[in-house]
Design a protein that fits this description.
Strand order of the largest sheet: 4-9-11-10-6-7-5-8
CATH class of the largest domain: Alpha Beta
Number of domains: 2
Number of strands: 11
Strand content: 15-25%
Structural class: alpha+beta
Distance between the termini: 82 Å
Radius of gyration: 27 Å
Largest sheet: 8 strands, antiparallel
Length: about 280
Amino acid sequence: MDDEKLLTIGAFAARARLSAKALRLYDRLGLLVPAHVDEVSGYRYYRAGQAERARLVAMLRQLDMPLARVAEVTEADGTQAADRLAAYWADVESRVAAQRTLVEYLRARLSGRSSEMYGKFVVETVDVPAQLVITEKRHTLADELPAWIGASLGRLEEAARECGGAAGVPFVVYHSEVSMESDGPAESCVPVTDEAAARAWAEQRGRAWQTTVRVEPAARLAYTRITKAQVAHPQILAAFEAVEEWMAAQGLRPTGPCREVYFADWDAAGPEDPVCDVAFPVG
């Protein structure tokens, strides 16, 4: 059979419509292993039937699919392979949608229309008392942040039930910038009532999640309220900048790290429902 005939890398490259360089790369990465490698010369030989897999790898790479995910697709069978491709492309479309929004945000900034963006945010101040909080801190990049916030606040809210119950709404403090280049850290916080129980819990089980117990000092917060849709990046950046612009106009300066205060049921909220206050301690 023709499929049993061994082809040199040059002949196979011509049949698969790929370069020999690409085939050597796919071999090195384990994506397309030659049918035979001569022990003396090191020459690679392929079977004609491998051409379909070679073309599949090449087409997946044209989608900018990372090599690890190419391997996942090519190693799967039938509908599972199709499902993995669909999942990858859904991620791509989600990322492109976020990038499109970011482009519009940057265009507004670069064209001097920032004030138009900031005008839709109403900034106010509120005094908050000192609070005993259990916290979970993590260095995280922006793409991992939403999932981590949800998971960490869920863990802390569950722990709060063992610490006398939650004594206030949860919030996330940013001790340094979180972006695709800067990893914070960020700190999830849930106020609790029973300090002894909180410290016992942290000592017993908190180490696995870098959980601590501390007192968040009383502060005056300058904040703006945003909807669930506006929590998404980069809309939330405009909210932070609107508060900063308002603070500068009022002659106020930040006295601590910025934060997001989540006062509503996230899962039950719709896109236009207020869910979060973007805030800075000021003095």
